[in-house]
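[job 4471] stage=fold_predict status=RUNNING
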Amino acid sequence: MSPTPTQPSVLILGNHPSSSHSMHRFADTLARAYHSRGWTVVRRAPRARVSRHVRNRALAKFAAYVENLVVFPVSVAVAVRRSQSVHLADHSNALWLLVFPRRRATIVTCHDLIAVRAGLGEMPEHRTRWTGRVYQRLVLRGLGRAEAIHSVSHATATDITRLVGAAATTVHLPVVAHDAGQPVLAGPYLLIVSSSGWRKRRDRAVEVWRRLRDTPAGAGLRLGVVGPALTARELGESADLTEYITTLRDIDDATLFATYAGARALLQVSRYEGFGWPIVEANTVGTPAICTDDEVFREVAGTAGMFIAEDLDLVDWTGLARRLDAPETREAAFANSKRFGFEQFADGIVAIAQATHEGGTPRQVFPRMPR
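[job 4471] inference complete, writing structure tokens
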């Protein structure tokens, strides 16, 4: 389909197949947003032509890097040059902008600058290897070439201004509840939806569960884990409670939302996040979230969040356990999810693109959302 003279078009560049499911899902949402506002959408993404056939893990990873950082940007250079607007769905691919011909109408969605900050030594908990530090500095340079940067949270926008030296427009991610499937977990339970990794702090989530379980109102609470099985380190002092823990992996969206709906609360106690998608996914079915008390979770969970101090000994666990069953807690969670609708997202994204397409500045057309 060729765009008419009055019909704007956008080339959306997605992620390599080896990237996370959430990034592919976001590219789908981005395409739907543009299409819903009358834009012609063309999508391109790297292919795993070689890496998917390589059995050696290290060699497969190297092949994926070549496919993503060398083969793909060269293969789409002509399409980029001919496009009215180009939107990179993931800031980690901003290196492509160092290869593409410089142009005005290039937009990048920035989900967070956590890896960049780690590469700059801002996170004492994690040391990045020299190759990673070089990579993240190139990401910063690429972001500096974007005409417009879409940030998924105000917290991330602040990092962008500080590290990239560019303004970013915040448009929150949309979260749409799926039809829930059949419940797979029985009994009252708390829920972790997370990958493993140092900043996910699943060991802390387990400790929060154990402390709530030790209260009268939380007695009998089980734990559901969507993601990799908990390690011995993550279990810690709760290793004797494994019979009360159920792990689910590779489940479909219907099962995921049924699992959200059955939980008393979601545990989102990670550190250094750009948004916190599971919080709003849980909220769409009325399930509240127990969160780390930091800026981005305050922004996303809003007044529906139950925030805990970094020092767990300072938390009123009895009072927190009682809040889990309060009707107003679930009502507040459901109301909070309404702030993250698709229509608001589509309006915001297209306003950024339209301003860029017309040569204006996005923040003049779509001002910063109030906190």
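[job 4471] summary: The radius of gyration is 21 Å.
[job 4471] exit 0
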